[in-house]
Amino acid sequence: MSVKLHDNYDNLVKNYLFSEIAKRVKAYTEANPEKKIIRLGIGDVTQPLCKTVTDAMAKAVEEMGVQDTFRGYPPEWGYDFLRNAIVEHYAKRCRASLKMDDVFVSDGAKSDCGNIVEIFGDNEIIIPDPVYPVYLDSNIMQGRRVTFIQANESNLFLPSPDGIEGGNYIIYICSPNNPTGAVYNKEQLTKWVEFARKTSSIIIFDSAYEAYISSDEPKSIYEIDGAKECAIEICSLSKSAGFTGTRCSWTIVPTELMVGDKSLNAMWARRQATKFNGVPYIIQRGAEAALSDEGRKECMAQVEYYMRNAKLIADMFKEKGVFFTGGVSSPYIWFKVPEGYTSWEFFDKLLNEVQIVGTPGSGFGKNGEGFFRLTAFGSYENTLEAVERLKKVF
Ligand code: MLT
């Protein structure tokens, strides 16, 4: 006799992609302590929090040490000051008009991408391949049926709904995309929204990289007419304000989003109230500051710093005639590995020969085989050096 376990976990790949990479890099570092490794693998930021943010956090720390301004449990959906700042952010920078009640503050886009599946029943899930592993893994954990749509070189890693039959799907879209860096334009996103509405499907839109968009592509799904009736959006300050360690994000579930007579907003509110105790006051004050005009200006200077790195890498691939996507409006560069290598073989080659850590495309799905991802989140100096090292490989 033994307790019953969730057999669905048997269907996951053994190790989470970034844990597997960390394990291999650790083994290499232990065996070669004298080698200088350049890490362009996990999309983790390297620039410190900006001054407007740290000042706001420092002030909040002081308030927490004073009787009159001390705060206990935060509201489970976020303090009104931050929910309002998020509504203003959408109005000012995303051409989208939201209400405070649509906004749920959270501790990370990854957690919300994983948790949001709990409010849905046993629907068919549509996930692009390749994809950020969390969408797939969290649905496998729930035993959901997943259909992959093909993102590949021929559609420049931007699959469309053309040819998809049936309906009542949960559809994951990430734009700018992780891992491919590809970005949907307004017309392409409109097609997805129209498809979702026509087929009674729901889109889960991950906009964690919106700050990197440099042209007029939508930063939010709510820039598309009708999206409030068919889409949930998950966004984060991790990549736009350096919050990967600080943890603050939000999920938008518009009050207009209904399935029959059921409000998804009410369901998510209920789920969060039961299972989540909110983001710390100090962090929410920092997040509010990051979204202020001054904070955003400082954060965007960091985004530009990373995009200078992206351009360095992208220019090198252009010069070498290597196929790639991303590098523009995205901190990721997704490129084709040289003939004869699998993605993991190329990972080992880069690590062993030029001590660069990247992310093998096959870790993001079948269509990622033969591709590789580099991030622009390193320092400028390290990126320059990485480009020189890469030139020896191509
Ligand atoms: C990535 O490298 O894909 C991301 O940093 C992972 C994440 O945001 O969780």
Notes on the protein architecture:
The structure is a single chain. With 394 residues, the chain is α/β, with parallel strands linked by helices. Helices cover 38% and strands 15% of the residues. The strands form 4 sheets. A 7-stranded mixed β-sheet has the order 2-8-7-6-5-3-4, with helices on both faces. Strands 11-12-15-14 form a 4-stranded antiparallel β-sheet. Strand 5, helix 6 and strand 6 form a beta-alpha-beta unit. The N and C termini lie far apart (57 Å). The mean pLDDT is 96. Residues 42-44, 110, 132, 178 line the site of D-malate (MLT).
Bound molecules: D-malate
Helix content, binned percent: 25-40%
> What is the number of beta strands?
15
- The parts where pLDDT drops under 50 for at least 5 residues are none
Radius of gyration: 21 Å
Strand residue percentage:
15-25%
Report the structural category. Answer: alpha/beta
What is the 3D shape? globular
By DSSP (H or I, 4+ residues per run), the number of helices equals 11
